[in-house]
C-alpha cells in the first residue's frame, strides 16, 4: 500500500530530511586518515540527538539479517557497496567512503546517502562517484507526476551502464514516509513506462549503487550485513528522499 502524503506531511518530512543532511555533513567532516569508522557513527548520533530525532537504522532487523543493525549510519568503504557496519577500522588516505543515514522526526522518516574520498581522490574514484550522482540526478528528473516507477529505474540504469559500471541486482530505492521502507520498490534498472504511476504526494528514496569493475556480482560479508563487490572493485552510492509534486520533484534531504 502506498500512502499519499499531504502538503503538511511533506513539510514535516522535509524537517526530517534536513536532519539527515546535517548528519551526513558531520560524517563527511569527521572522516580523515586514522579516524575509526565508529567515530563517524558517533558524529551522526550527535546530530540526531541535538535534533531530538530517532534512527530508523539503529536496531533495524529485516528477515535476512542475522543481528539488528548496531549503528545509526551505514559506512561502506572501498569494495563495500552498502550496509557497512561502522567498526574500529581506521580510514586511510584515498579510501572511498559511502555513508547512508536516516532520521525519524515528528513521526516521519528521511533517508539519504553520499560517497566521498578521504583526502585526494584517484581519477577513477572521482568518475565513479560522479556517475552515481549523475544517475541520482537522472532518477530525480524522471520522478514527475504521470511518469512511472520504471521511468526512474530506466533513467538511473542508462547512466550507470553508459559509464560502464555494474548495478547490484536486488538493491535499489523504496517508498518512504512514516517508516523508512514502504512501497513501492524503485529498482536501479528497468524498462520505461512500467510500474506504478507517480502521483502528487508520493515520496521515494531514490538510490543508485554502482560497481566500479563493471560486473553486477556481489556477495554478503560474514557480518551478515555488508554487501561487497566480488571482483574487489570499488563502489559508490548516492541517495535522496524525493517528493513527487505537481510542481516537479522536491528533494527533501538536501542541505
UniProtKB/TrEMBL annotation:
* A GO molecular function held by the record: initiator methionyl aminopeptidase activity
Coiled-coil parts of chain: none
> What InterPro entries does the entry give?
Creatinase/aminopeptidase-like, Pept_M24, Pept_M24_MAP, Pept_M24A_MAP1
Residues recorded as binding substrate, renumbered to this chain, are 83, 181
Q: Which Pfam families match?
A: Peptidase_M24
Which regions span the lipid bilayer?
Answer: none
Q: Which cofactor does it need?
A: Co(2+); Zn(2+); Mn(2+); Fe(2+)
Tell me the keywords, alphabetical order: Aminopeptidase, Hydrolase, Metal-binding, Protease
Q: Where does a divalent metal cation 1 bind?
A: 100, 111, 239
Q: What is its EC number?
A: 3.4.11.18
> Which reaction is recorded as catalysed by this protein?
Release of N-terminal amino acids, preferentially methionine, from peptides and arylamides
Positions binding a divalent metal cation 2 in this chain are 111, 174, 207, 239
Start and end residues of each Peptidase M24 domain: 12-246
Per UniProt, the cofactor note for this protein states: Binds 2 divalent metal cations per subunit. Has a high-affinity and a low affinity metal-binding site. The true nature of the physiological cofactor is under debate. The enzyme is active with cobalt, zinc, manganese or divalent iron ions. Most likely, methionine aminopeptidases function as mononuclear Fe(2+)-metalloproteases under physiological conditions, and the catalytically relevant metal-binding site has been assigned to the histidine-containing high-affinity site.
Protein role: Removes the N-terminal methionine from nascent proteins. The N-terminal methionine is often cleaved when the second residue in the primary sequence is small and uncharged (Met-Ala-, Cys, Gly, Pro, Ser, Thr, or Val). Requires deformylation of the N(alpha)-formylated initiator methionine before it can be hydrolyzed.
- Family per UniProt? Belongs to the peptidase M24A family. Methionine aminopeptidase type 1 subfamily.
Assembly with partners or alone:
Monomer.
Full protein name: Methionine aminopeptidase
- What species does this protein belong to? Streptomyces flavochromogenes
Amino acid at each position: 500500500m502506498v500512502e499519499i502524503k499531504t502538503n503538511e506531511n511533506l513539510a514535516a518530512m522535509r524537517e526530517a530530511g534536513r536532519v539527515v543532511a546535517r548528519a551526513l555533513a558531520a560524517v563527511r567532516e569527521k572522516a580523515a586518515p586514522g579516524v575509526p569508522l565508529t567515530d563517524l557513527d558517533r558524529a551522526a548520533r550527535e546530530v540526531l540527538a541535538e535534533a531530538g530525532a530517532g534512527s530508523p537504522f539503529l536496531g533495524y532487523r529485516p528477515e535476512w539479517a542475522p543481528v539488528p543493525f548496531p549503528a545509526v549510519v551505514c559506512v561502506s568503504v572501498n569494495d563495500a557497496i552498502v550496509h557497512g557496519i561502522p567498526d574500529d577500522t581506521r580510514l586511510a588516505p584515498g579510501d572511498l567512503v559511502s555513508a547512508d543515514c536516516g532520521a525519524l522526526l515528528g513521526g516521519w522518516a528521511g533517508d539519504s546517502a553520499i560517497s566521498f574520498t578521504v583526502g585526494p581522490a584517484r581519477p577513477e574514484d572521482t568518475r565513479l562517484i560522479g556517475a552515481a550522482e549523475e544517475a541520482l540526478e537522472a532518477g530525480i528528473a524522471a520522478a514527475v507526476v504521470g511518469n512511472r516507477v520504471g521511468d526512474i529505474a530506466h533513467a538511473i540504469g542508462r547512466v550507470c551502464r553508459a559509464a560502464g559500471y555494474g548495478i547490484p541486482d536486488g538493491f535499489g530505492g523504496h517508498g518512504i514516509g512514516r517508516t523508512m521502507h514502504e512501497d513501492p520498490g524503485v529498482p536501479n534498472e528497468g524498462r520505461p513506462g512500467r510500474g506504478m504511476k507517480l502521483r502528487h504526494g508520493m515520496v521515494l528514496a531514490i538510490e543508485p549503487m554502482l560497481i566500479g569493475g563493471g560486473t553486477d556480482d556481489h556477495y554478503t560479508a560474514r557480518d551478515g550485513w555488508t554487501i561487497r563487490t566480488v571482483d574487489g572493485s570499488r563502489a559508490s552510492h548516492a541517495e535522496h528522499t524525493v517528493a513527487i509534486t505537481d510542481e516537479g520533484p522536491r528533494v527533501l534531504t538536501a542541505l
